[in-house]
Batch of 3 targets.
Target 1
Amino acid sequence: MYKELKTLEEIRIYSDPYRIQIMNQFQKMGRPATVKEIANSLHEVPAKVHYHVKKLESIGLVSLVDTKLVNGITAKYYEPFQGQIMIKKSEFDETVQQVFLSETQNLLNNLFEESKKRFLLANQGPTPTGTLMNHDIFLTKDEAKELTDWINQFCIKHQNNDTSEPRESYEVFFTMAKGQDPEHSHKNKKEPSSP
């Protein structure tokens, strides 16, 4: 499942570092949660979190999935989008394209910074738990899509800790971009060496 961010407003809404924290907190819950639950876990005021949840809801990254009457108050349960979030470059003029690129870079910087903080935190103790990998691989477009779909489905499958087996929480941050190395872009074959 994919969600495409197509407009500057959508990218601005998602790229806010505080909203990224809210999305991460919803993911950690592993179940639909109320704004109050998210606010409590972030040690924040519910009104502040509610404002940002409404912004995320407006672009489909958070959805209202249930309501319950609790002590005379309607509790609203939200769930985060379960899938890949992609940025689609639309037909903008050159000026708007520059702003679009700037907002996209802002979003990526915020995502990388949040992931970096969590990675460094995981490696501060006596037993480091973070794993970092960097590989150049050669794939067809279909294989690249298959890989991202598989990772996404694997993460969704293991989002909830609802088994009797003891499990630990791991944070996964995955990026994949088409390489720009001109030496390898045409062929993946070695030329025969001359005698």
Note: Helices lie at 8-15, 17-29, 35-42, 46-58, 94-122, 141-157, 182-185.
Target 2
Amino acid sequence: MIRKATAHWRGTGRDGDGDLTTDSGVLSQTPYSFKTRFEDTPGTNPEELLAAAHAGCFTMALAFQLQQAGFDPESLETQAAVSLEADPAGGFKITRSALTLTAKVPGLDEAKFDELAGNAEKGCPLSKVINAEITLTKTLL
């Protein structure tokens, strides 16, 4: 399976701008720029997209973990907060992806919840490629 996206950029790093398009069409010439990345201008940025991807990947992995264990989740909601910081070696680097999960799963006890959520965090394909600290805070309702 191969998934594709295209970035198109015009101009310099600080003053230029670009757009992102995915083959699925979910993103279609979605604007991004220095201002959408480092300020609050509308548009997206690579870290936001990584956060969305990590939250989605982890949540789907947990849904499969729960299903295999015989649980039917009522709701799973995950926020991923990706940190971009200055790199002492130069430039910037992603240093952390902090996952915050709220789950409502009838019949699931806390110990099994901890086990399955931990398995999902480690087993999610994006967790396996993110070269940064990954944390998981979870609440079972």
Note: Helices lie at 34-38, 46-68, 110-123, 125-129.
Target 3
Amino acid sequence: MALLIESDCINCDMCDPECPNEAISLGDEIYEIDPDKCTECVGHYDTAQCVAVCPIDCISKDPNHEENEAQLLAKFTRMHG
């Protein structure tokens, strides 16, 4: 399942540089996660790095992009070979 940055994001810029897939970018008002690039850090780390560094815990699972670990790993493999 891709992750989602919720509306209470304070634009602290902690998450963007931590994303190994470059899935996070500044949107019109808050940071956003591209679900096509988000693997929840599967293939890179044991935990999602954006969630680990978010000071206000505003990153959650995106219910509109449900994926299991095998699907996330397959996405990682497609992106990184």
Note: The beta strands are 3-5, 24-26, 31-33, 59-61.
